[in-house]
Amino acid sequence: MLSKIEAMCLKKGIRFTGSRKIIAQIIIESNDHPDVDVVLQRANKINPKIGIATVYRTLKLFADNDIIAKHDFAGEEKSRYEDVNDDEHHDHLIDIKTGKVVEFYNEEIEHLKEKIAKDLGYNLVDHRLELYASPIKKDD
Amino acid sequence: MLSKIEAMCLKKGIRFTGSRKIIAQIIIESNDHPDVDVVLQRANKINPKIGIATVYRTLKLFADNDIIAKHDFAGEEKSRYEDVNDDEHHDHLIDIKTGKVVEFYNEEIEHLKEKIAKDLGYNLVDHRLELYASPIKKDD
DNA sequence: TTAACTGCAAAGACTTTGCCAAGTA
DNA sequence: TACTTGGCAAAGTCTTTGCAGTTAA
Questions:
Q1: Model pTM?
Q2: B75 and B106 fall within a common domain
């Protein structure tokens, strides 16, 4: 079965090479929003010859084609990546203690975003909502 | 009369030098969220001897002390800065055509942000909400 | 086969830092 | 005067790119 990423490469006439297959698979299987170095690490477990430039190039290629999403969270130097499903949008809560990312979706906020833009005389094209938070401690 | 930034510096024992005074004034008077180069340009109109390193150092100093806010908007390479008033929070709508920044505040969203974090088991520490939008064209 | 891809190292863009002269309290 | 600042240029990060060998269709 064709992965979504492979299908899109085929469609756009982009070669689905060994490196790309590996990197695509890593993104699909990772749910921790890895950065370039982490992706490289995971890729090198499968093929140690893959270099950092290829990872950068491949992630950019996928991101430019909206197959994956690139995030630049506040306070972090490197970008992080995640798989995207066209039909499902979500925002992020970042645990400032650990860097862990929790995804969430809130219908009300989505509507409000649209409304606010409209009220200001704009058509909403994109948005970014990130919550930076620390876990509530429980002494149970 | 002491500017808010000068007062902050005094309070924190940070020297309020000529360069810092100029840069502080520029941030206070600018409402277009200028980046480092723009701040340098404006500073150099007053004192051509101020260098880019000083602007970077000063903006970082102010930002680290929460006297000004630093923003990294999506799709822009350089950071942009703005004055902050402790008691007044706002989010940003970025005009993707011109880079113009419109500030807005929405009570409902503020509450939702808090609630979402709580529901996920976190205490909200900070957040980032940015709307990227294009102006609604009117043929009037 | 042949145009596209990859690895390596070098180059870029933004930001920070070391050094020493200069300014502030 | 003592200690912090600031200008300049060099160094640091993350990311992109040129080149030549390699590979997928």
A1: 0.90
A2: no
